[in-house]
From TrEMBL:
Mode of membrane association: Peripheral membrane protein
Family: Belongs to the THEM4/THEM5 thioesterase family.
Organism: Actinophytocola algeriensis
The organism's taxonomic lineage, starting at the top: Bacteria, Bacillati, Actinomycetota, Actinomycetes, Pseudonocardiales
Annotated protein name in UniProt: Acyl-coenzyme A thioesterase THEM4
Compositional bias ranges of the Basic and acidic residues kind: 12-22
Residue runs in coiled coils: none
EC number: 3.1.2.2
Amino acid sequence: MSRVPPKWPPVEVEHPAPHPDAPEQGTKLGPHYAHCFGCGDETEGGLHLQTECGHDATIIAQFHVTDAHQGAPGLAHGGLLACAFDEALGSTVGQLLRKPAVTGKLETDFLRPVPVGSTLHIAGKLDGVAGRKVYASADGRLDAPDGPIALRARALFVIVDFSHFTEHGTADPRDVHPDRDINP
Ligand SMILES: CCCCCCCCCCCCCC(=O)SCCNC(=O)CCNC(=O)[C@H](O)C(C)(C)COP(=O)(O)OP(=O)(O)OC[C@H]1O[C@@H](n2cnc3c(N)ncnc32)[C@H](O)[C@@H]1OP(=O)(O)O
């Protein structure tokens, strides 16, 4: 089976500079929402991703794989690994562009099994913007920032109005103001 991915990004893109208010390298980023399954600190059994701003406009996320994340005995569930990448890539887009966006498409290549007890080091970057479409990708390395690559992911995020979260979800419309026009 060929593992050569199709052209990425699939369309002509611009390469935007990070937003002036994007966090500086080394900044630890807390959860964007306490009940988020990916990063929230009030979700028992959630992924509890820890993110920080890396060098060269990257967002670095760490996912500690526990017994709660198993698919096969002793191995991480693939869907949860994809979820970790969704979260890390969403954070990459949101933190660097400071615009509300949702996942339109997520592709994940699983290259190595990820054992319980390991830590996945995910490095996300922006690959370009075309109108409301934002392309981002990430590598996930086992147990060290320079460890072997276990997963790769590519995603399309679509920039939305904040009303996406108030009309379709339960976000509080009072959260909408010029400094908070980002994902709830
Ligand atoms: C401090 C800062 C903190 C921030 C931290 C934040 C962290 C957040 C972390 C959270 C992480 C977790 C994140 C989550 O879990 S987000 C939750 C999971 N995602 C969703 O629920 C999204 C559901 N989908 C929708 O709501 C709509 O379909 C959207 C909004 C995506 C688009 O509907 P809309 O009617 O608005 O727009 P459109 O249909 O004209 O599309 C627009 C353009 O996009 C292109 N397109 C769309 N889909 C696809 C596709 N599949 N493949 C290829 N292309 C696609 C489309 O062709 C068009 O292109 P063009 O015609 O313009 O060329």
